[in-house]
Amino acid sequence: MGRKWNNIKEKKASKDASTSRVYAKFGKEIYVAAKQGEPDPESNRALKVVLERAKTYNVPRAIIDRAIEKAKGGGEENYDELRYEGFGPNGSMIIVDALTNNVNRTASEVRAAFNKNGGNMGVSGSVAYMFDATAVIGFEGKSADEVLEILMEADVDVRDIIEEDDTVIVYAEPDQFHAVQEAVKKAGVKEFSVAELTMLAQNEVGLPEDVQAQFEKLIDALEDLDDVQNVFHNADLSE
């Protein structure tokens, strides 16, 4: 799964380069998770996942606290979770996840981003079946063999474990996110370079150099939308 790890690194690097936008997206996601359940991560699994992900992007504590306090105070903003599916150049497939308080606005903006940048939207289910919801957790300080032994002893099932550039990356079912983290934390891991719930493509497609530029413009246009939280795709951008 090395190629998939490369795509995750590319995505994370892109987010790291636009911190204010990333912080705003996390603030919204934390607010929604806290409002939908208890505003305490120890009793709200969805909130705990968001906070663990936020740590890897160094989201300031002030933004986290403000979003949780807003939820505690019964904030009046309500958001719908939406998923759009579509196609980019060269047979590439794209999933767009959004949080919005105006469904019509978001649908219009997402469709326009596709149409203006060489893509087109598909119907629900036209793309998602080619992706797998996956927990991806990366950290340093252990070898892949050590991590495998740790997880086996903790009775945690995972899909794959790889080691690349001194980083161990664990791929697991989404419901094993916390189990993986807790097991390796007990073994001495203190920080995570990546902690994501993502959609991994079952098969990736390569893009010619000229097409890759167009594809990246499409992805940037989608990620720049205020209502869009995440964009997943099956293009191999590691070349």
From TrEMBL:
Pfam families found in the cross-reference section: TACO1_YebC_N, Transcrip_reg
Main location: cytoplasm
Domain TACO1/YebC-like N-terminal: 3-74
Gene Ontology biological process: regulation of DNA-templated transcription
Annotated TACO1/YebC-like second and third domain residues: 79-235
UniProt entry tagged with the keyword RNA-binding: no
Keyword terms of this UniProt record: Cytoplasm, DNA-binding, Transcription, Transcription regulation
Protein's cellular compartments: Cytoplasm
NCBIfam families the UniProt entry points to: PRK00110.1, PRK12378.1, YebC/PmpR family DNA-binding transcriptional regulator
Family statement: Belongs to the TACO1 family. YeeN subfamily.
Name of this chain's protein: Probable transcriptional regulatory protein ADS79_10695
Organism per entry: Brevibacillus reuszeri
